[in-house]
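Memo to structure team: turn this sequence into structure tokens by end of day. - J.P.
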Amino acid sequence: MTTPLPRPKRKKKGEGGGSGTLRADREKAGLTGGRDIHALPPEDGELLELDPETISPNPMNTRLELRDMDSMIADVRERGVHTPGIVMHTKVFMECYPQWASRVKHPERQFILGPGHRRHAAALATGRIMPAVLRDDLARDRRVEEELVSENKSRDGLSPIEQALAIDLLRQRVHEDEDRALSFDEVVERAGYTAGTVSKYLALLKLPGEVQEAIHVGDLSMRAGYSLSLLKDSAGSKESAEAHALQLRGWQLMREEQLSVEAAKNRLALEGQKQFHAGKSPGAPVSLPEPREESNAPAGSTQSAAGDASKPVASSGGDGEASQVQADASAAVSVIETTKIPEPAAPEPAAADPEVLRKAAAEQRDLACRLLLAEDRYAKGAESSARLVTVVLNPSEWKQAAAKAHGWLVELKKGPSGKKRPGDYFAAVAASEDPNLMLRAAFAIGLAADEVRAARLDREWDARDVAHVQFLATSRASYQLSEWEQQQVERLSRVKL
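Reply from structure team:
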């Protein structure tokens, strides 16, 4: 049923520039006798009342599912569809979008939807009339994609993946005046987002299907998903089978061990280090994480819970280009990538020597410490204070601890450059009047004091060493204790009993 609403009477000539008398218009349209003006074909912009059975869904619709339909159907059953959708003639749409013609679900129906799929589904379920505005001009001007993106942007309930699909739809469209795809800048302008936000949305579509599904259902936030999408394989690709395996492994660590995305990526870096560890042959090489954007939280602020990373986070405007990352985070990965670790020899029984295992564990812990110091939120305030107190109460440890901390911080490009001596470096930090830098430097010295002590081969481990590795394991470094370290923890636990 197609029932146009009454048209306003046309003005006669001389009454404001109308198209002519009503009679002349009827004769021009070939309407005579008992046929009335409502037999004229509907015009663009006209509000129609349609049987929803005459409308086909749009194949460009990026909604993966229609959510909250029970409340929508109940409302439509009671009050009808009170917000009109947008329709085009199916024939016009298919002529203007031949690449989509084969995907039209009901090509025999007279109309095809633009925005309004939930309203249409509710009208079908209740048998109510579907009010809709005719907009064939959207198809003729090839602006259907933009209308769908604009509609989706203004509505709640779309997942980040659905929003990404809408932007990707716009990216695939052909320029209306030229036989070419839209440029990235044109997509940004027509989508109404910042360039950084568009890049991040599109990056989600390059993730493995399992990770995309987690983002869609809300188990993984957009921010965390984007961070996983930056993981590359050994050749620098983010879309290869190897890169996808890394991204899946990162999501597995987050899900099974309740790690934040930063901790999961740090774990991947540790797992990927090519060295003999804990008496076992090394696994296949794992690509190191790409630099990640740091938050604006002050250094040393309380670390967020692991579960926070997997909650949906709304995209916000004002993001920079996705390819731009802060230099501090870049330095962390640069240090890891340039750390030269000799290829292991074939496993031999002699490799089980406790001293070999202890050295291997120390090298892993050293990397974990650097990964942790590269984080913006490297420790809780109490954890940082405890390490500072420890090194102050043990002044004999300061010199070696300061040397190691200096090496870490310089490699990570934290603090003043050009200071080759630890004393000069830390004096410059103290004079900087930068409280965040001073806190990081103090924490680094305390962390280094614990690590220097734990790495010594001439002493047995005690409770302080156990606390050190347990801190690394529960921090964002997400360190995994080696078999040798686990043995020391168990030994000291038995001593306590």
